[in-house]
Structures are given as C-alpha cells and as structure tokens.
Fold SRPBCC domain-containing protein.
Amino acid sequence: MSSKGYDYSITRTLDAPVGKVWNAWTKNDEYGKWAHAEEVELDVRPGGEWRSVMVIPGGARVPLTGTYTEVVPKERLVLGMNVPGSDEPALMAADFVAEGNKTKITLSQTFDTAEDRDQAEQGSNMLLDGLTAYLAEN
C-alpha cells in the first residue's frame, strides 16, 4: 500500500476453510453470487485483468475494471480498481489466513481523503457481509 494517509483494515473470521473462501474470491460464477455482480471475468494472476458489473440496491449497474498486482494462492490478493478521473488505480489487499476449518480474512486500503476511505470501507463491509452469507448457504 502507499503512504497516502487515510487507511482502513477490516478483519473477519469466516466459518469456511481457506480453499472455499479463496474460490469464492477467484471463481467467476462464485464471485458473482456473493458480490452482487454480473458479467464477471476474473483473470487471477499478476497482471491479469478483472471486470464486473456491480448491481447496487435499487438496481443501478456500475461497471468496474482493474488488474491483479499480487496473487499468492490461498494467502493474498492485491487488486487495483480503475477509478474515473484518477491516474492510479485504487489498490485493495485481501489477506487469507487458514485457522483450521475457518479463515481469517483482512481487507485493507489506503486513500488520499477520509471521504474516499470511508466509502471504500463501507463497500468492503458490504462485500464481507455478502461473502459471509454466501459461505453460510453453500
């Protein structure tokens, strides 16, 4: 991450083994189910591109694109998201730690402004809520 100044880190322990959590983050069909996304394309490798259309409450569709910058299977994903009007992608790290049949996941990001950080943190909590519900059902 950079030293821009406004960061967050969210850690949750999920009731699923790390392989299942990893697959939920890296398989097109699974990611779309819990992340409320359509048209999901994930090329999970360093330099690989990802794209999806997020469907937000109310039905609005938001196209998202980016690139994976770091991939350590079942341990770490760092992905950049292209942000309109910005020369640099917003980077997010997802760290996975196996704890028996559970997985500790930590999402973290750093931003230039507190407002951007707060919006991203809210979005990350929504992602983790969706992931938690998906893992409980599958």
